[in-house]
Amino acid sequence: LEKLNCSYVIIGHSERRENHFETDELINSKVKNVLSKKLNPIVCVGESYEDRKSGHYKKTLRNQLEKSIPSKCKEIIIAYEPIWSIGTGQIPSVKEIIEIQNITIDFLNKSKEINNVYFLYGGSVNAKNLGDIIKSTNIDGALIGGASLKIQEMQKILTLC
């Protein structure tokens, strides 16, 4: 990736975690490797539907952040992808996204001593819902999945930026 002049690397996507059995510890190792190559990791975190409904989602997310993110990084990009939202068309409320952003930044500032935390939202992102999310939150961007495969949808999304 370094030789291809890539700047960013997505690590810990839910499909990699599930289908390739990637653990938080492996993700931590990958983050360190990416940083050592002067590339920018985008670390995905997110909770299952069961975690969300049972109220354990905060613990799940803190656990992912604790184990996946090395301490004292200069900066880190976190992509919040609620697993229950990916590909379903269901998305968390703006209030829930803001809550997760605050939990994430606070945890990384205090527990990992990372002062520059960038927060992306990714979970069934499309032009219709991204406009409301951008307007109502202070997220730093979006991680776009399926909508990125549809040129007209991507054109609409890009007009929001």
Q: How are the strands of the biggest sheet laid out side by side? A: 1-2-3-4-5
* SSE succession: EHHEHHEHEHEH
- Integer-rounded radius of gyration: 15 Å
Mean of pLDDT: 95
Count, helices = 7
Number of strands: 5
Give the distance, in angstroms, between the N- and C-terminal Cα atoms.
26 Å
> Helicity level, as a percent range?
40-55%
Largest sheet: 5 strands, parallel
Q: Detail the poorly predicted runs.
A: none
Overall outline:
globular
Question: What percentage of amino acids are in beta strands?
Answer: 5-15%
SS class: alpha/beta
Itemize the secondary structure elements and their pairings.
Layout: E1 8-11, H1 14-19, H2 24-36, E2 40-45, H3 49-54, H4 57-68, E3 75-80, H5 94-111, E4 116-121, H6 127-136, E5 141-142, H7 151-160
Parallel strand pairs: 1-2, 2-3, 3-4, 4-5
Helix pairs in contact: 2-4, 4-5, 6-7
Mind explaining what this structure looks like?
- There is one protein chain.
- The protein is of the alpha/beta class and 161 residues long.
- Helices cover 47% and strands 15% of the residues.
- It contains 7 helices and 5 strands.
- The protein has helices spanning 14-19, 24-36, 49-54, 57-68, 94-111, 127-136, 151-160, and strands spanning 8-11, 40-45, 75-80, 116-121, 141-142.
- Strands 1-2-3-4-5 form a 5-stranded parallel sheet, covered by helices on one side.
- Helix 5 (94-111) links the parallel strand 3 and strand 4 (116-121).
